[in-house]
Amino acid sequence: MSSTLRAVRALILLAGFQLLSLVLLGVLAAVDWAAVHAPSSVTGKVWLVSVVLAVPVIRGMFMLRLPKLEEPPGVPLTEEAEPRLWAVVRELAAAAGTRAPDGIILTADVNASVMEHPRLGGLLPGRRSLHIGLPLLTGLSEAQFRSVLAHEYGHYVGGDTRLGPVVARGRRQIQRTIAHFHEKADKKVARERAAQEKKSARRVAKGKKAKEIDTTGAGATYRAMAKIYTWYGTFFLRASLSTGRAQEFAADRNAARLAGRDATASALREIPVLANAYDFYLDRYATLGLDARTMPPHGAFFGGFGDMLGARELQLAEMRAELPEPERSPYDSHPPIAERVHAVESLPDDGRADDGRGAALDILADARAAAAALEPAVLAEELLGFRRAADWADVLRSGMTARLGDLDTPLHRALAVYTKSAPTLPALLKVIDEGHLWQLARRLPLSDEASAAQGRAFREFVRPSLEGLVHTWVISELSKQGLLDWEFSWSESATVVLPGGDPEAAGEALAAAVAAALADHPDTAPLRALLPPVPAGAGTDTDIESV
Amino acid sequence: MTVLLWVLGILALPVVAFGLYIGFVFVKTFIKHDPSADDENAGAEAAAKLGLLPATRQDLDRPGAADPAAEAVLQAVRGGDWESGARFLAEAGRDWEERGRRVSILGHEAAKEDAWLLAWRAARPGDADAALVNAESMIYLAWDIRGSMQAKNTTREQFDGFHRVLAQAREACAEAQALGGDDPNPFVVEMPLAMGLGYSHKDFNELWDQAVKRAPHHLGAHQSALQYWCAKWRGSHDLALSFGREAAAKGIPGQLLTLVLLEAHFEYEFAHEDIDEDEYYKRPELMRAVDAALLDLAAAAAEAGDPKARRLLPMRHMLAYMLYWQDRYEAAMEQFKLIDGHIGTAPWSYLAGKPRFAERYTAIRDFTAQRVLEASQARDVTA
């Protein structure tokens, strides 16, 4: 089949998706018409049944109406404010041979995309907007960014055929429809996500405000119709898969033509790396202080990403060398990244390796102001009310102090059960001194093997996790007493600075003291020596339950 | 009316006859002897006649009767009297093999509960005996943590614990070796580590040299080393068999080193499911190896003065099995009579899981018993 024929077939199937309900109704009508010739008692029954069957089909026709495409949260960038960016965007659109977007929105994702509000189920073009993620701009060079833009435009230019853009729009629309069905039908998933989002301020911080739970997808008829449409939709996606994949390759070639081969290949390698790095950054840096209701300084929530990328250049270089694993979904039109990179790299050298080496972020008129403006636009309301830290070291110190302050480990719970009083470190040391540590350890969550073990084997099973738990507990105790400090670093994980001079020696002394307290002949003296003196009467009068 | 009764009576006759016939067949089947069951019963009867015990009365944990002295020592150390343990080990003196046996007994106990060993080590720092027991106990402990399941049924936690304790055991072995002087046992004790941690052949040979330098004919050292050289651990079938042949060749009768070759052959046979034991054990090399082992055993027994001496038992178990496959029933029965009752050792423990291997043992033994009885009846008839 030629590519044009394939596209025509895809187009017919696409129309079929819209017409599926009509076809189903037609079949029912035909059955009713045929039933006229049957004895009248049968005719009545057939009609009754067909009415019952028609209800979900008609409901299904309304199901196809998607909620309006929503612009992602972000900051609109006007042409007056960002003339250079607009110039680049227009220039590339013209070179690609497609319409320039009607608006640009700066988002907080590691992504750039062109969104088109579809009309007539994707058959006709509509208003276009371009979404550019600030983290993406932060991580890419100017040439790489141009390549990403050129690729996105490529989707609207179409691949080998004139019908390509329509098929691409249709695919996108159907993917959205199917995703929408799943979202509504999987109430459980939705509920879980809502719970998660409520629970974790961290997720909210990533700009994902908790969604309202939609419960209209409850009925069985809805699910049945959703199943039919999903089935048809996946059938369509499969039928147009080769068109979709060819489009990705064509979009890559388009990007290479407009932005240079090397920039395109390196951008393809870079984006998965950036996505990982950004997740890491959000988790370890940007949201570090949230437990202490502390935010990084103004503009630093998104602005810090660039600092981290700069400091971790060596680690990123390693990640770049490995191309990500092939994707799994059979309906994903994106061929594996590795395949795309190889396809681009096998193009002839265009001598443009040195184009646009500058940072993509410099295209913006004021990157710092943009990062600051993004915060109120995408972050949850709650976070914006948090205290602003003086600097990143302050963020780290507050965050760690808060986390260590309300430490609740399995050992805390085991000790509480064992002593029937509030778990404190002195109470734990007392249990150890009295030789009851291993009875206490029986109350920790244990694997089957560990709980079946006796005597020495049991102790060896439990000792490693106990060491970790006691170590953390001691650190938390020191933190509560204000005896700890933390060393902030963009290039490495934060390190704890123990009191008492040489940090390395202090760390070793702590490890040795913990090991001594958990040894077969326990000795808690070294650990007690490390801890601040306990005010008399505090936490020492625990009731040891005899076992 | 009476006519009717007559007619019915006559009609009923065949039914009654058929019923009787069925009843007869049923009873006949019920009391009929199954010929194979017959054979089995005869085997069990023959074994009973020879004074041997049924499967349910076999001790599956030990190769021979419990050592009352050792039991008493274990009782004492459990009560905290570590000095009994220390004395027990010290009394073995320079009988390295006996010392190795006692270390193993104490090591097993300390792997379970080691308060007494900790007390011993605290009271006598630098004590070579305590260090040796400690090293041995850590190796048993490591295997207790790992469990006896195959790798795929062993959890990450178990493997981590296994390797962590093995690493500690290696240090404990080094300590025992530094303190041990001319005792080969600290080196013998390390050999299972070589299997678990996968020592290179070079590293293992260095360990081996240290052991044989101190005791060239230590049976336990040879048995442990054979395990290392087996295909299932770090060697191959060829390496294991040639090691067994060398060991058998260098021993003098009474040292029981011929057992190492028998074990190598047994490991080979056990690792090959397609081997026909009936054919394999009758090969000339096997016949010669068993003959040499019988001579070796006779010399050792004469030396020991007690046919049930503990030292002889591993050899007797292995010979009973191999003589059976060689159809040398009289000779096999001699061994069965001396080992019966305690079968917690190779080759029996390999044959099936516990406690099922007891039945595999009794099947082999009973068959032997029956052949022996038949032969003696035949002799009686001809006499």
Quick rundown:
Chain A is mostly helical and about 550 residues long.
What does this structure look like?
- The complex is a heterodimer of chains A (547) and B (383).
- Chain A has two domains: 75-397, no CATH class; 407-530, no CATH class.
- Chain A is 61% helix and 5% strand.
- Chain A has 24 helices and eight strands.
- In chain A, the strands form three sheets. Chain A has a four-stranded mixed β-sheet with strand order 1-2-4-3. Chain A has a two-stranded parallel sheet with strand order 5-6.
- In chain A, helix 3 (83-96) packs across helix 5 (142-157) and helix 12 packs across helix 15 (367-378).
- Chain B is mainly alpha-helical and 383 residues long.
- Chain B has 19 helices and no strands.
- The longest helix of chain B is centred in the N-terminal third of the chain and has 30 residues, at 2-31.
- Chain A binds chain B through residues 447, 449-450, 453-457, 460-461, 464, 520-521, and chain B through 110-114, 118, 122, 137, 141, 144-145, 147, 155, 157-158, 160-161, 164-165.
